[in-house]
Write a structure and sequence with these properties.
Layout (H helix, E strand, L loop, with lengths): L10 E5 L28 H13 L4 E5 L9 H9 L6 E6 L4 H10 L4 E5 L5 H8 L4 H14 L3 E8 L8 H5 L1 H4 L3 E6 L18 H6 L4 E3 L7 E4 L7 E4 L12 E4 L4 E3 L8 E2 L5 H13 L26
Parallel strand pairs: 1-2, 1-10, 2-3, 3-4, 4-5, 5-6, 6-9
Antiparallel strand pairs: 7-8, 8-9, 10-11, 11-12
Helix pairs in contact: 1-9, 2-3, 3-5
The protein binds S-adenosylmethionine (SAM) and iron/sulfur cluster (SF4).
Length: about 325
């Protein structure tokens, strides 16, 4: 279905939980989340019904996210059932990789085609700092399990944080020489109470290009990333610039939170509730959400914070 600005909405980001086994500083508060009542969250059957309703409106691609989607007990079943919905051509998962040693194969067998794995630094101490609780060896164990499980594509996502990982842009980018993966750098977005980074932490994607003068541009693949490649690399470098150069005019996505709210725009607090509705009710709410998708997300920077009304773990990125 197209929205009122003529954008064809084909991509649903589906958050299955707000909970996480890490506490990344730009994403969620140290104390974690105030666990909502089970009764407020979508059940597995409601999630699948929402996917069916979305598919009936032209959604073809699903990304399962969170919080950390792999802490959800029934994640394999959700992925399997979502992948089987008529009209859904692609199911992808975004994860911090920690639980992949156990789950990579079952997810692949359930029909998940692609994985995005989050890694902001190669340094164990810095990884422990940015995730507040994480152990980088758990990331690498998950990464290798994913490589062995035969996914069609693996991408690594790093959030760019000035003064933290801008000195690692070259070694992170060189992962594309070592492995057949894409490396993506994402500008940090100022969510409402996620981290107290000062303005110097919000660096533009152009900083990556300054550090990698030898990259050559690659034709876009239909996604929101600007693509480049290092000589002799096995994968691309993707630059995602929601802050310095927004791509709202090409946005083809909507989001569904774990508590059943459709968000037509990541950075707006306008939400459409699906919890408790039947197929027709969910479809009508999704239709309204798509039609009313705003033209753009407004200014975003250290002073103009996101108007999402939620932190990233409650939306899904
Ligand atoms: N837990 C999973 C993970 O970390 O991959 C999935 C959920 S996480 C919210 C999805 C993506 O959002 C991750 O790549 C994460 O780095 C990114 N993210 C979280 N907070 C962000 C922020 N403030 N700005 C930009 N990206 C952010
Ligand atoms: Fe958890 Fe992902 Fe947020 Fe990190 S970015 S706290 S892993 S949800």
């Amino acid at each position: 279905m197209t929205d009122r600005f003529g954008r064809n909405i084909t991509y649903l980001r589906l958050s299955v939980t707000e909970l996480c086994n890490l506490r990344c500083r730009y994403c969620m508060p140290q104390e974690g989340v105030c666990k909502k009542s089970h009764a407020d969250m979508l059940t597995e059957d409601e999630i699948i019904q929402a996917v069916e309703a979305a598919a009936s409106l032209g959604i073809t691609k699903l990304r399962i996210t969170g919080g950390e989607p792999l802490v959800k007990k029934n994640i394999v079943s959700i992925c399997r059932r979502a992948a089987a919905v008529a009209g859904i051509r692609e199911v992808c998962v975004t994860t911090n990789a920690v639980l992949l040693p156990k789950l990579a194969k079952p997810l692949r067998e359930a029909g998940v085609r692609r994985l995005n794995l989050s890694l902001d630094t190669l340094n164990p101490e810095k990884y422990a700092y940015i995730t507040r609780t994480g152990d980088i060896s758990a990331f690498w164990a998950g990464f290798h399990a994913a490589m062995e499980a035969g996914f069609e594509k693996i991408k690594i996502n790093a959030v760019l944080v000035g003064g933290f990982n801008d000195d690692e842009i070259v070694p992170l980018a060189e992962l594309t020489k070592q492995y057949p993966v894409d490396m993506r750098f994402i500008e940090m977005m100022p969510m409402y109470d996620s981290g107290d980074f000062d303005s110097s932490a919000y660096i533009p994607y152009t900083r990556v290009l300054e550090k990698l003068p030898e990259v050559v541009p690659v034709m876009p693949d239909g996604g929101v990333a600007k693509l480049y490649r290092l000589p002799d690399a096995q994968g691309n470098i993707g630059l995602i610039s929601p802050v310095s150069a927004h791509f709202c005019g090409d946005c083809n996505r909507i989001r569904l939170t774990a508590d059943g709210k459709v968000k037509p725009c990541l950075h707006s607090d306008v939400e459409y509730a699906l919890k408790g509705l039947d197929f027709a009710g969910m479809r009508a709410q999704l239709e309204k959400a798509i039609w009313n998708k705003p033209a753009w997300h407004g200014d975003l920077d250290a002073i103009h914070r996101s108007q999402a009304g939620r932190n990233m773990n409650q939306i899904g990125g």
